[in-house]
Amino acid sequence: MPKSGAPPTSSPLGFQTRLLHNGKAPAFVGGAAVNPPIVRASTVLFANAAQQREMRARRSHERVFSYGARGTPTAFALEDAVSELEGAYRTQLFPTGLAAIGMTLLAYLRPGDHVLISDGVYQPVRHLARSFLEPYGIAYSFFAADGRDAAALLRPNTRMVYVECPASLVYEMCDLPALARMAHDRGALLAADNTWGSGFQYQPLALGADISIMAATKYLSGHSDVMMGTVSTTRDAWEPLADRSDAFGMTVSPDDAWLVLRGMRSLSARLQMHERHALQVAHWLQCQPQVCRVFCPALPEDPGHALWQRDCRGANGLVSFEWQPGTRPEQVDRFVDGLSLFGLGASWGGYESLVTPAAMTEARTATDWGQRGPVVRLHIGLEDPADLLADLERGFEASASS
Questions:
Q1: Three-class DSSP category at 229
Q2: Each residue's pLDDT tens digit, 337-353
Q3: What is the DSSP letter of 167?
Q4: What are the two backbone dihedrals, phi and then psi, of residue 373, each rounded to the nearest 5 degrees?
Q5: Which among 134, 217, 245, 332 counts the fewest CB atoms within 10 Å?
Q6: What letters, b where the CB count within 10 A reaches 16 and e where it falls short, cover 244-282?
Q7: What's the rounded Cα separation, in Å, for the pair 245 and 321?
Q8: What's the pTM?
Q9: Which CATH architecture has domain 267-400?
């Protein structure tokens, strides 16, 4: 019997045996599907012992289909698509965006090292630093989200500078090429969370970063129905990530990989629509008396606008705003509860609009937000902007009621 798993066509095999071994060849003759098929596999069969030995020897340094935990052709297709998007040498997939961040820190840092972290990172990174880095003897410190004090906080043992740009929640821009030069002059790596830019609006690797991380859960997927993270690197930075990911058996479901791959096909069109709608909302918010400041780097008034113009090719659906100082928490609650089109929930990047209050005093430690007004984050979806503005107006009316 051939080692491929297909039984001889003329063998007098029993029904149970035929049930297990038939139906493995393609059931069609003709062209190819537009999208790659979903390949679900744990066990991979080889033609002979020599081929199995060869594939096991090669998989330490190249991508081969050798076992499900090391990826299937569906995941490989997504890796290639993300690498193309990011301008990367290779990409590794992870079950969540936070898992991608955690494995990045684990792959490149050792006890005794120091990592310099932007104050504007995704908030769970702070918990990761406290719960993982600190107990394992890896020191960390936070610098201002716009990068202004980063150089002063470098240490002789700094091995990585970790940023999110634009920053989480209020979208501070930093000069990524300058941070890359600063890190490389000290022999450190620059890692950037690129979830906001999604590889399409922003490309950290082209700006000097060594590692780019994305939560594919968000704009790459685009439909709020899958969890995934990606890490893309330059050629020089690839091996530690690949080795550590293999050691921990990091992989993703082929069904999830297929969903993200499908979502990526419409990424450009969706982002343009998100940006157009978000800018309409941002300009409207600037005219509301309850609003002290609107956060969006695409706005000319934003402090990071010049860097955004230089480094980005567009924006997305994220807009946050600061209420006037003295606004009470219950007013913000009434605003949120008064909305009907904006769902109250975490994450963003799907087709739908979302709202969530931002706890800035917990999300920033290098910058003092204690005396400022409350902040609300909006994700502007693909709904008609006129309907969204009417919904926001109802929210502000509700916030004023007693």
A1: strand
A2: 999 999 999 899 999 99
A3: P
A4: -75, 165
A5: 134
A6: bbeeeebbbbbebbbbbbbbbeebeebbebbbebbbbbb
A7: 39
A8: 0.92
A9: Alpha-Beta Complex (3.90)
Report which residue type is found at 155. R
| Residues 1, 7: Cα–Cα separation, whole Å | 6
Q: Give the pair of three-digit tokens for residue 13.
A: 């095999």
Contact 248, 103 (CB under 8 A): yes
What are the Cα distances from residue 144, in Å, to 127, 154, 182, 307, 373? 18, 13, 15, 16, 19
Rounded to whole angstroms, the Cα distance separating 38 from 256 reads: 9
> Are 129 and 272 within 8 A, CB to CB?
no
The fold adopted by the segment(s) 49-264 is: Aspartate Aminotransferase; domain 2 (3.40.640)
Selection from 129, 146, 148 nearest residue 138 by Cα: 129
Query: Domain boundaries in the chain?
Result: 49-264, 267-400
For 37-87, what is each residue's pLDDT tens digit? 899 988 988 899 999 999 989 987 888 888 888 889 999 999 999 999 999
Query: Are residues 321 and 289 in contact, defined by beta-carbon separation less than 8 angstroms?
Result: no
Q: How far apart are CA 299 and CA 312, in angstroms?
A: 13
The candidate with the shortest Cα–Cα distance to 380, out of 298, 257, 258, 259, is: 298
Rounded to whole angstroms, how far apart are CA atoms 228 and 100?
A: 8
Whether the CB-CB separation of 220 and 249 falls below 8 Å is answered with: no
